[in-house]
Amino acid sequence: MKAPTHPSAPRFLSLVCALTVATGSVRIANAQPATPFPAAALAAGPGLPSIENLTTALNLTTAQIATIKPILADLDVASKNLTKLQETVTGLTNKLSPILTVAQRPQLTAVLTPARGARGGQTQTGPSAPVPPQVAIPRPTPAELAQINTTLDAFSASNPLLKKYPAIITVTPPRAVNVAATYTATGVRNPRHQAFVDIAKKGDIDLLFDGDSITDFWRNSGRAGVENPPMAGKAVFDKYFGSLKAANFAVSGDMTQGVLWGLQNGEGQGFSPKAIMLMIGTNNTAANTGPEIAEGVGAIVQEMRKDFPNAKILLLAIFPRGTGPTDANRLKNEEANKIIARLHDGQHVFFMDIGSKFLSPDGTIARDIMSDQLHPTEKGYEIWAVAVKDKLSELMK
Prior knowledge:
This protein is α/β, with parallel strands linked by helices. It folds into three domains: 14-82, no CATH class; 105-177, no CATH class; 180-395, 3-Layer(aba) Sandwich (Rossmann fold). The protein has eleven helices and eleven strands. Helix 5 (190-202) packs across helix 8 (256-267) and helix 9 (290-307) crosses helix 10. The relative contact order is 0.10.
């Protein structure tokens, strides 16, 4: 259980009906549209902007200053209270931890922010797909959640600060419906879906590639005359896999739920591949947690095992991305990779992590390997092909 810091509270404000500061803009009620928030207003460093800085930087009128000043004072007090509350909850969550099972602890988070609306996601989410137990997220029962809330209430009742802000401390269980593990049609797969179904109906496929743009771009030729073209794997594909009866059902921009929907709706019927190379999940990082991505990948593997019972699945770890080892999306993918590695059984599913082959010693990604630090160049596809070709040959025997 973890009590995260609240970095935005001391530096950006929410002035209801009078002043709004968010994502670098300020707006005065009943005034003109938002104007850039000047650096001078924050010149004093961390903390709430002073009324003097706001007056100078924004050229506020006397009436506007009169409206804002008491609100700033109230928010200054609230900011200090939040800091104290943060320290209190950090200690509280450490004390609360023993009542949670080991499996539940990573999934529960104490949040020091006001309640927010539901996270954005796709409309018309499809039905949930079965998830292998190896990657399933432990979800507390209603009784367990009631026990947690009772314990929190008891702590709050004994602390004046916690009694003052009862709605601020929340325990958030995993979402009941994980969109990443649903059969949900995605806008990027829909236009290409029928072509894949037509290929599937013809059969005669020994090797199937599936995933997102990173796999999709195996078919890209790149611009003529360009050495080591970006996002272009066709020459490498032809070199290593061109003689095989291969099909590529990967779609640029797709997510785990789109692959699931495609498999259920014709892309998983009509043929019986000997081997499958699957790598998917990096596009889920914007809307899903690492464990949720792992559930989505696991659901795909289970669907493929049902659709292609005789196929050997080469499950690749999601490739590294971003500027370095601390990139937020890379860390999320790494969390998912640790979980999906449990799907390896050495009989039908073979997990392989080749991510380190794309990295420099300091953990960065050279531009000649991934020009945008996400999609391989021709050189990057060469690294990929060399890393998997022997294993794929073994699995296709």
